[in-house]
Amino acid sequence: MSEAQIASLDQIDLFASLTPEERATIVRQCRWRRYKEDEQIIDHLSDTRDACLVVEGRVRVVMFSMSGREISFDDVSAGGYMGELSALDGGRRSATVIALTDTLIAFVPPRLFQEIVTTHPRVALIVMQRMAAVIRNATGRIMDLSTLGANNRVHAEIVRLAKPGLRPDNTAEITPIPVHGDIASRVSTTRETVARVLSDLARSGLVERRGHTLVVKDYTRLVDMVEEVRGE
Amino acid sequence: MSEAQIASLDQIDLFASLTPEERATIVRQCRWRRYKEDEQIIDHLSDTRDACLVVEGRVRVVMFSMSGREISFDDVSAGGYMGELSALDGGRRSATVIALTDTLIAFVPPRLFQEIVTTHPRVALIVMQRMAAVIRNATGRIMDLSTLGANNRVHAEIVRLAKPGLRPDNTAEITPIPVHGDIASRVSTTRETVARVLSDLARSGLVERRGHTLVVKDYTRLVDMVEEVRGE
């Protein structure tokens, strides 16, 4: 166990409430491994049950359809964690996890993860609140898949991406321009549909490419297009 | 607070690890209310944040699309609970809850619910494991909505309903015959589609109505029809 490894767990939000000594004890029981970009970290068929701390890099949680289409569930950056479902309930992996960049993972054995959440209520509460966020997100996605067409799901995803960059003049910037395949896998459609919807939006003046930025020129109108169909 | 109320919390699985005294303390801080069949218990627009213990009866967690179509998420029977997301994260309600039968609910204020899960690790672990089950279920549903057509989603739901009644001769009985509207709201389609798929299955000899029972006559074949498309 290196000093660097102990220090690196300081960046894991989940363990912010633990003492340095408690973190050091955890570090000692973790298995560490580096992954290259695009390398698979968890296979959904694997029988491992560890929770995984993302110490460096960024990972994507996905499933693949029979035709090979990627359905993405979440991206987790350094400081976050994933794989907690199997660590908590002992059940099989619910998804595949792939490194989006070079990544360093600390694997927490399931018994240790359960011990941590049962002896540190603050940690347990964070785990529960994050699971609540995952459930809320999944509920919204099930509603969108059940009630919106693919076009409107692409609109809804652009609204979601634009929201953090919204400005008082009702425009919003998304930088860098999102990759069509990423949008497609988040809203369960094809790249071709994403490309077509984006060029329709550009033609009607609602979005515009400027260098590496996608500018949403009338955020409220785009929100309305989604909510009219959602019924919100 | 009546003896009956204290006793009734004994039936709540979540609190099985607590002492009778601890349960009595909780009972004292709950708000109790009875609901008639079809009455709304939680409005998804409500600003309440209580966790809800189902002491008697049975409830359904649903959302409605703009056109009024019901998308159902979960049924919770006596002994179970719901509404924990808002109690844990203080966020707004993610769904509407309706009484399926006459129902008695004990409302646990959010501060009390958080206190319970942070002082009783066994309770926290059960909450986390149940949330894990909800996430697994939602992930499967998102995959089915993303990759299966409505017909196959109806097939998948019949497989799910038939599984507990599977017999060694590869037949399975579902009693009572499921209501078309219930299947429709679980797999996000219309009653008409469910009726059509069931009559197609009956015509091809895969299912048969016998009184109040739906008999699946070739369970393996039905499973294959789903898995061929899912790619499992």
Automatic annotation (TrEMBL), chains A, B:
Residues 148-220 form the HTH crp-type domain. Gene3D superfamilies: Jelly Rolls, Winged helix-like DNA-binding domain superfamily/Winged helix DNA-binding domain. Transmembrane segments: none annotated. Pfam families: cNMP_binding, HTH_Crp_2. Residues 14-117 form the Cyclic nucleotide-binding domain. Keywords: DNA-binding, Transcription, Transcription regulation. InterPro entries: cNMP-bd_dom (IPR000595), cNMP-bd_dom_sf (IPR018490), Env_Response_Regulators (IPR050397), HTH_CRP (IPR012318), RmlC-like_jellyroll (IPR014710), WH-like_DNA-bd_sf (IPR036388), WH_DNA-bd_sf (IPR036390). GO terms for molecular function: DNA binding; DNA-binding transcription factor activity. GO terms for cellular component: cytosol. It comes from the Bacteria. This is cAMP-binding protein. It comes from Skermanella aerolata.
